[in-house]
Write a structure and sequence with these properties.
The chain is of the alpha+beta class and 636 residues long. It has three domains: 233 residues, PPM-type phosphatase domain (Phosphatase 2c, domain 1, 4-Layer Sandwich); 140 residues; 240 residues, 7 Propeller (Methylamine Dehydrogenase, Chain H), CATH 2.130.10.10. 31% of the residues lie in helices and 33% in strands. Strands 1-10-9-6-7 form a five-stranded antiparallel sheet. It has a five-stranded antiparallel sheet with strand order 2-3-4-5-8. A hairpin with a 2-residue loop joins strand 14 and strand 15. Helix 1 packs antiparallel against helix 2 and helix 7 runs antiparallel to helix 8. The two termini are 56 Å apart. About 9% of the residues have low confidence.
Amino acid sequence: MDSQISVGIEKIHGQADSNAACGIFTKRITFEGGVVGTIVSTILVLGSEGDDNQTYLRDIFELSAEKLENGDGKPLEVLKEAGEACRSYIEQRNLNVSFVNALVYKNAFYFGRYKEDVRIWVFAGKNSSELKFEYGSGLLNPTQIFLIGTQKFFLTFDTSVLSGGAALDLEGIIDGLATEISAEESQSEIGVAIVYVKNEGENLVPVDKGEKLEGKVDQKLEVSPDVAVEEVEKRQDGQELPPQFPTVQSSGNRLAFVSFFLSSSISTIVRIAKTVISEAGKLKRGDGMAILRLRRNIVVVAFLILLILGISVLVAIRSEGSKKKLVDFNDHMKAASSKLAEGEAILDLNRDRARTALSDADREVKAALVIEPKSADARDLETKISEKLKATEDKTGVNFQTFADLSEPVFGLSASGNNLVAFSSSKMYQIDSDGKVKDKTDTGGNVNSGFFTNDSGFFISGGKVFRQGFSDSKPKEIADSGGYTDISVFLGNVYLLGSSQIAKYVPIEGGYAKSVDYLNNPEQFSINSRLAIDGSVWVTNGKNVNKYMRGAKEDFSITGLQDTNGEFGEIFTSPQSDNLYVVDISNSALLVINKDGVYQKAYQSPEFAKATSIVVDESAGKMYISSGSKILQASL
């Protein structure tokens, strides 16, 4: 620690019971070069047996301390390693645990969080904020107070009293807390470590002892000065100290210009005012020209006053808008940095979870770039996230086997229980799980798209839409297709995909109502666009997937997928599936994308480029595609 700064640590927690236990631990650790640091841990265990809870608390802290004592990297990196070791211990035992590990080292405060039931607040004079990052750090300054406490602590006690600045009776507050916690019914879930910073030799200032920490937490404490991990690490690499809490950004040039303009205008008004007074004096002496000059100067003064007022209002509005943009930009950047750090930390342990975190980071940095497209920091962060995402890509080669050969081209494929239903140009086939044709019926010819559901096939043929079951002697016309190229059915409603609109046919007694436009606004779909429905309507369009709900286009984008200049075609999903399965024609691949837009993996085979339809059976671990006259099968 800096010789001018000292740190005090107080530990307060309630008695454990059979449902919960909270532990506050500290330990001095000697790092390389003989520099001593202190680890502070607040750990909460919920829902296990009481005796075991105490063991879990000690094990988790000792594991953290061991990693820190034996670590040879930067403090934040070692803290991450300790956190991951504890996470592994917790997950292996299926425990409900939250913790914060903090490290006071030299003149900096480092922290790492796991889950949400232990929180960190920092108080600096009359300012306060919660540190919400998973990992971060900052410089220590005199008068700072860090609370590392459980969720129940912050919901039970009013912490705003700690924003009292210099006039703060911290010793009295700590004494009062210990008494009040012991009286709480849920004290087993209450605990807090209080880390306070002061100048060397400074005593805590005594004030009125009557002020207690009580009541509910003040929900107005919404400052968020969290320090991004990336920023911290860059400063460490440059042999500099981490940034202070809190960080502030401003743009001074515009304000300087406005200030110069206003001061100049005010000077002009003062000068003209003196002239007005002079002219008024001349009026008393009967100077006739002074009347005209007086009127002119009054008009000029009025104009300048109105101009200054208008500019002041405009500057205030623009300043407020710029401030909000800056806050939003910083929030996205902090979230992206935090998720990047999370993904990097678990990349070798859990690739799937790392990919999800990195995809979230990619989404956040892209949102930041929408606000500040020219930000070099955002561009650099985007590049780093992209490189990490590329390292997690999972591409699997697929070896297809012929499942059935129908001797004529297949234009549609649907699942029907354990069977498949295939549509050729002139027939509809039912195929069992062994690839054998169980049933077939003539459709009349010229079929170019089909979908089977609820014992009926729906298909487009010769510019019209037909419905037919395997027991029907001939198909029944239900609509004029009007040049639509793909068909799907959901809850009895028939959807037809065209070049710019989706037509919807609703069943009524005796048939179907006249079609209505499903989309609120027309789109421009590609020739390879296809649709799938699971409650939402999903449509491939170029290298994008559009999502619609009740005709409105929803915000949906794919994250974690490198820009491959692909062209999407066939798509499959179902209400039971968490994923979309999308054929990338250009790259002859099948992409797996979850319904939050996160790219999961890719299957590669030359057959995908020729696929005319696709069905995925997740429960059986199988995929089926139609290619030419064949239906091909492969394992997921």
